[in-house]
Amino acid sequence: MAHITILRTYAMMDPVQIPDSVKLCYSDTSVTIHDKWPKGMYHELVLPLIRPPLRPENLRDLRSLLMLPREEAKAILVGLRRDALEAKKLIEEEMVRQHGFSWGMQIGFHALPSVEHLHLHIVSSDFLGEGFKTKRHCNSFHPRLGFFLDIDEVIRWFDPDIEPTWFAMKASLEKKEYEDLLRGSMSCPHCDEPFKTMPKMHKHLLDVFDKMKDAEEERKLQAMRAAAAARDSPPPRIPTLEEIEARMEEKRKHDDVQDGGEPEVIDVDALPEPSPAKKQQVEAPSSSS
Fold first, then answer.
1. Is the pLDDT of residue 200 over 60?
2. Could you tell me which residues come within 8 angstroms of residue 34 by beta carbon, excluding any fewer than 6 positions away?
């Protein structure tokens, strides 16, 4: 079926030739396209380009990528993350243009993707896209369930202190383990409240987004009030030169008091009389007279 391999078709093209209605941006190593069935208000896919020495089978999915030499696989993942962050900036700018503020996004892979060719999801956390319709969709993008693998988590699998056996276990992406996650109960990706039907989940997600908007409006209002208060406050008065000198004189007086006040005046009449011997020595004429 053509939709299964359409991503591979884009990955083999010159990104310049991909219509602007399809792509968001591109680099030397990847192209970011709009998801045809968006799960959030904003949903993009970052595709690594197929260029020699890479072959299509090397980039079939995350498991295929992780079978490459470790440093090569890690370099591709780091490059995808870099390009995803650049695309994220563009999405945030569009959020502000359309809604007046930006909100969170998830960047990661599906453990078991439904279409061929490796693709990194960038999806806004509102989950109010027209393609968000089933429990499988909800569970596959839930940030804490385990089926959605955050890009930073996958890159951490390559840390030097990771045991090779543990890396091999994670890289195998055991099919049954992850399929069981999709069959589990459905819960809100924000607060984990359980829901049995998608209409109730959708209403809850709308309420969450409305509260997010209200909080942002309140933040802006508080910032405007603070700016108005600062603008209406009179500027601080600059003291005159005479006032500065008066304050300095006052400070000098204060420092003198702290050091003991005025110098002590000695009353010579109150001094004791010298001893007779001392008095006689003082009154005796010098021998040179």
1. yes
2. 21, 22, 23, 24, 43, 44, 45
Q: Which long-range contacts (CB under 8 A, 24 or more apart) does 247-252 make?
A: none
Q: Strand 148-150 vs strand 105-110: parallel, antiparallel, or unpaired?
A: antiparallel
DSSP string across 33-71: EE-SS-SSSSEEEEEE---TT--GGGGSSHHHHTTS-HH
Question: Minimal CA–CA distance to 113: which of 175, 177, 39?
Answer: 175
Strand partners, 108: 121, 150
Neighbours of 41 (CB within 10 A): 21
Rounded distance between C-alpha atoms, residue 192 and residue 187, angstroms = 5
* pLDDT at position 288: 46
Q: What is the 3-state secondary structure (H, E, C) of 115-136?
A: CCCCCEEEEECCCCCCCCCCHH
As a three-state string, the secondary structure of 145-163 is CCCEEEHHHHHHCCCCCCC
Is the model more confident about 2 or about 282? 2
The CA distances from residue 118 to 110, 263, 277, in Å, are: 10, 89, 115
Taking the C-alpha atoms of residue 30 and residue 51, their distance in angstroms, rounded to an integer, is: 10
DSSP 88: H
C-alpha separations of 11 from 29, 49, 229 in Å: 10, 5, 54
Tokens of 200: 């109730």
Find the mean pLDDT for residues 215-240: 85
Q: Confirm if 83 and 151 have CB atoms less than 8 A apart.
A: no
Mean predicted confidence (pLDDT) in 30-49: 98
Cα atoms in the 13 Å half-sphere on the side-chain side of 254? 6
**pLDDT tens-digit profile of 45-58?**
999 999 999 999 99
- So what's the pLDDT on residue 271? 59
CA distance 238 to 216: 39
**Structural element, H or E, at residue 110:** strand 105-110
